[in-house]
Amino acid sequence: PAGGTIVAGLFTAGPDAGVYTIKVTDVTSGASSTYQVKEAFTVAPANWTFKAADAAKTFTIAGAPATSTSYTWDIMDSATATTPVATPADYGAWSNGRVVANPVTKTNDLAPNAAVTAVKTFYVRVTVEDAGLAAAGLDKVTVGPFNIIPVATYTVTVTGAAAAKLSGANVSVEYPKGTIIGPVATDAAGEAKFTTLPDSGGNYVYTISMPLYVTQTKVSNLKAVPVTLVGGAVTITGMVQDNLGAPLVGATVSAYLPMATAMPTVYKATTVALGAYTINLPTGAATTGWTVVAANTSYLSVQKTGIDIVGGTAAVNFTGAVDGLAAKVLGSPDVDTGGGAKVDTSASPAGVLRTDVEVPAGGVATNGYIIIVPNLKATAPSTSTAASPTYVYDVKVTSDQAGTAPLAAADIKRIVLTLPIDLGKLKPGDLEKGVFRIYTATTQALLEAGSGTAVPVANIIATDYVGNGLVGSVTFRVDHLSFFGIGGGSDSAGEIASGCFIATAAYGSYFEEHVQILRNFRDVYLLTNDWGRAFVGFYYRHSPAIAEVIAKNGGLRAAVRLGLAPVVGVAYVTIHTTPVQKLLILLFLIGILAAGMVMILRTRKVRRVIG
Questions:
Q1: Residue 440 contacts residue 415 (beta carbons within 8 Å)
Q2: Is the pTM of this model over 0.70?
Q3: In which domain, by residue range, is 161 found?
Q4: Structural domain total, the chain
Q5: Residue 433, domain member (yes or no)
Q6: Across-strand partners of 256?
Q7: Which end of the chain is more exposed for a tag (fewer CB within 10 A), N or C?
Q8: How far apart are CA 471 and CA 318, in angstroms?
Q9: Where are the strands (E) in 308-435, listed by range?
Q10: Residues 488-529 pLDDT 10s
């Protein structure tokens, strides 16, 4: 092919694929050598990840010679497969057909199969009919992996006292991050349904509110999400205005009781018309010492402390106090701690848009901190940044108040960070399974040298494996201020390295229903307290080796499934029952135990009499 150039000793291929011949001559001796460089054509996808309901996505060929006569598009099940999949319609349909006879048409659109019910991973192979490329072994290029993610229905069922179904409760879900779907009002059965959420195995964050009830946030990856609202007779009301006196609709107002050593329970409300809000607090709530925080995207948050509730209510107005002139906020942080992302000139805007910082209300005791996350250009390829190859991320905390003490370690651990992930490298569930990990190091050089430490899987809050089709995101808790990147997992990573190692090995999939129940139990009842986190950490350290043995033995897998059945049953009942129902079940079990003891004692008494 023509068009190759050599500048300052560096060869650059021309626009066409083929075999380039380079002759190198020694200017002193006149001796020369000839080299051949093979340059393949390329196939560029518009997306790495598809939702089943998405419109067709475009693939573009570049570098195919004008002498080519046709292009053949095949769906493959691996990067090394030599034979296309038997039923390509299971994955989708090519808009121009499998074989494109017109060599000018170098694009083809793939419409994903809308009937997909589980994540499907595939590769695309393009074969160019060209004698020269075929002779050089350059007529085939395979790209991938690609993932089709189905859309599922997620149902939130809201109940009140005595398991009564609550109609008219407002349920919303945040997906993708920063976008609120809803609110959807519950029907007569207490159900609110969401039909556009991807079934990728990740958690979704729901917010449930209703007049005279305490607003609740629920994190779940289940299709059926049970929520029990608690009645609230104590309220904090008021309004929120910006520094120009304009009411802020959609601002978040949070109330909490400051705690010295633990994360406080936070009660929230969203401002409506005229900037008004009402926060419902549980019956019997403390009457003194409340802190109330007003926050809105692109505004500096403001808090008022020492609020006392008199006569069951308190009025807290933020009038002309929420200042947007010096905002450094992305998302909606809940305290007077800005969260922001900035980028150097060499990083991609897509990465900036998916970088976010949040600090929960009550997470930072001292005001005046600003948290920033510069997106820094990567300087060297590294396994620790393979899934974020363009950037590394530096989490920094500064203060805008002179004399402010350094941020405490306990406060740092409450910082929540969202980073972009390269969907061309990851597939759904990879971060949860340990196939890819979030790595951290004290310097960028150490991180890129592969000396990073993996962030615990338990620190991951949510993942978005759809994103814009090219870039997704992961949200996790920060252990300490340092540099972060996303790279490949350990050698033992794989299908069994899921966090629920033994259960995943026994049931065969990280997304299997029984495994999801155990994961949800872990997230709700174990990772929310010190004893539970210690147990999970011990389990993560010692169970992978056991899981590998289980995964390789079908009989052992069946035996473990049988042994896990009661554990799954207890977890299911714990997750899906109200406190009253749990009490009744406990009393029933105690009754059975007591009856058994009575029978044993009577049997022993009869034996003594007979003896």
A1: no
A2: no
A3: 151-228
A4: 6
A5: yes
A6: 291
A7: C
A8: 38
A9: 313-315, 318-322, 338-343, 356-358, 369-377, 391-394, 396-399, 416-422
A10: 764 333 333 345 668 877 876 555 678 778 877 776 677 666
